[in-house]
Design brief:
The protein is mainly alpha-helical. It has seven helices and two strands, in the order H-H-H-H-H-H-E-E-H. Strand 1 (about 140-145) and strand 2 form a beta hairpin.
Length: about 180
C-alpha cells in the first residue's frame, strides 16, 4: 500500500480549529531560531505541515485499504479526523501533556478509525474500494468431447464475477448436444 501523495489537511485547517495564535504558540520553539530567539514563519509552517503529514499517514494507515486515496483527500469528514490527530501531535510534540479537549478529540477520532479499519463502521459518503488483492473467482470447468475435445467453464456454477479477465466467447461452448438433432 503506497503512501498518500498529499496531506489531508493543511496549517490553515489547524488554525480554523484552534485559532491562528494557538497554532503559532504550539509551533513556536522560542530560543531555537535566530539571534533574537525568534523562529521564522517558514520554520513554523514546516512544523505545522509535518504534523499534518504525520496525521495523514496515520489516517491513511487505517483507511487506505478500504477507500481510494482521491476519495479520502476530498472528504470533509476525513479532513476533520486528520485535523484532530494533527492538533494532538502538535500539542504533544515537545513532550508536554495534551490539552484535555484536544486529547478527547484525538482519542475519539482514533477509536472511530480503528472501528472503520476493523470493518465495524464505514464512512457514509465514500464508496469502498475493491480489495487490494482482488476477490478470487472460482471457475468450475469440465471436459467436453463434442464437437471436438476441449475444456469449458460452466459460468452458472462458478462463483464471483470475473473482472479484468479476457473473455473467451466460444459459440459452441453452450451448445447442448440434445438440441443438435
Amino acid at each position: 500500500m503506497a503512501e498518500p501523495t498529499a496531506a489531508y489537511c493543511d496549517p490553515e485547517d489547524l488554525m480554523d480549529r484552534l485559532s491562528a495564535l494557538g497554532v503559532q504558540l504550539h509551533s513556536d520553539d522560542g530560543g531555537q531560531g535566530g539571534d533574537d530567539g525568534s523562529v521564522s514563519e517558514a520554520d513554523k509552517t514546516a512544523v505545522e505541515e509535518a504534523m499534518c503529514l504525520r496525521a495523514t499517514d496515520d489516517v491513511y494507515f487505517y483507511l487506505g485499504s478500504h477507500y481510494n486515496e482521491s476519495d479520502l483527500a476530498a472528504s470533509r469528514w476525513v479532513k476533520n479526523r486528520t485535523v484532530d490527530l494533527a492538533l494532538y501531535y502538535l500539542d504533544t510534540r515537545r513532550g508536554d501533556p495534551a490539552n484535555e479537549a484536544i486529547k478527547a478529540d484525538f482519542e475519539r477520532s482514533l477509536e472511530i478509525l480503528e472501528k472503520i479499519n476493523a470493518g465495524k463502521l464505514r464512512i457514509a459518503e465514500l464508496p469502498k474500494r475493491k480489495p487490494l488483492g482482488g476477490v478470487p473467482a472460482i471457475s468450475n470447468q469440465r471436459v467436453r468431447l463434442d464437437p471436438h475435445p476441449r475444456v469449458v467453464t460452466e459460468r452458472k456454477r462458478s462463483t464471483g464475477k470475473p473482472e479484468d479477465y479476457t473473455k473467451h466467447d466460444d459459440k459452441t461452448e453452450w451448445l447442448d448436444p440434445s438440441e443438435m438433432y
